[in-house]
Amino acid sequence: MTAQPHHKFGGYDVLVAIAMNVMWGLNLIAVKMGVDLVQPLTAAWLRQVMVLLICLPALRLIEGRMRELLTLGLLSGALFYIIVNISMAVSTNVSALAIAGQLGAPFSLILAVIFLGERIHKYRIAGMTLAFSGVVLLVFDPHAVDERLGLALTAVASLVWAICSLIQRRLIGVPVLTIYAWVGLVGAVVLGPIAFVAEPAAFASIPDLPLSTFGWILFSALGSTVIGQGAMSILLQRHPVSTVVPLTLPTPVISVVAASYWFGTKMTPMMIAGGVVVLIGVAIVTLRTARAAEQRQD
User: Fold this and answer.
1) Which of 67, 77, 150, 171 is within CB 3.0–4.6 Å of 183 for a Cys-Cys bond?
2) The pTM is what?
3) Domains of the chain: which residue ranges?
4) What is the pLDDT along the chain (298 residues), one digit of tens a residue?
5) Quick one: CA dihedral 147, 148, 149, 154, positive or negative?
6) Dihedral angle, C-alpha 34, 229, 254, 161, nearest 10 °
């Protein structure tokens, strides 16, 4: 295998990493606003339509990869956003959901062990344990008692995200915009009828929505999907996995702080403790996994 050419990590890369983290970090606010201003399923459908329109020029058949692309579209473009948007709709403390959403990393590792035969050692096991323990702390926070359904749905969404991450491993070499063009297409096709039947009033009111509402959903589609994923792709093309993956760690911090400020939700000591424990666990899993991936490439 030809070694990936590595570039010096300079100012350009710093700006790309900042854009990636800011877009992903603020996306939580955009999703919550879209859900509150429209309805969960209708907002999800609108997002996928926008993703499709943005990525449409890159839509093409990829020989030998269509099964993975269609499966990813079904899971990532439809099921994931059904669960995520419903979790947002039933919750008020979005910061707690941002913390629980970090379970995607340990879930991905567990699935890699089960389905890919990946071997893990004590450090990553400890990281997974910390991540799950931190979310358990959130469940027992009296101020988050009304968010348990949202936390549970977020955990399920994290599992779906982890499954999607395994599928994406099989799509290495496929352009990011092509992947998300198929995600948008399949998501729009699946979510459209569901939203029409489940939320007829919201679906019918789409032509009357103010531009500001479309703006929130567009921010999510463009900022998180196109800019965020595009920035990650740029960094991975220029630098080793072990350098790039840890750069995503500021994202949950931005999400928690921004959501707490925007929605005025209180950060309790137990929530802060749970968040710190989760982030430490995720950091361990992320750093060790990135290092292991780099060693396999070498």
Assistant:
1) 77
2) 0.85
3) 11-297
4) 444 456 677 888 889 999 999 999 999 999 999 999 999 999 999 999 999 999 999 999 999 999 999 999 999 999 999 999 999 999 988 888 888 888 888 888 888 888 878 777 788 888 889 988 988 888 777 776 678 899 999 999 999 988 998 888 788 889 989 999 999 999 999 999 999 999 999 999 999 999 999 999 999 999 888 898 888 878 877 777 667 777 888 888 898 889 889 988 878 888 889 889 988 988 888 777 777 766 666 5
5) positive
6) 70
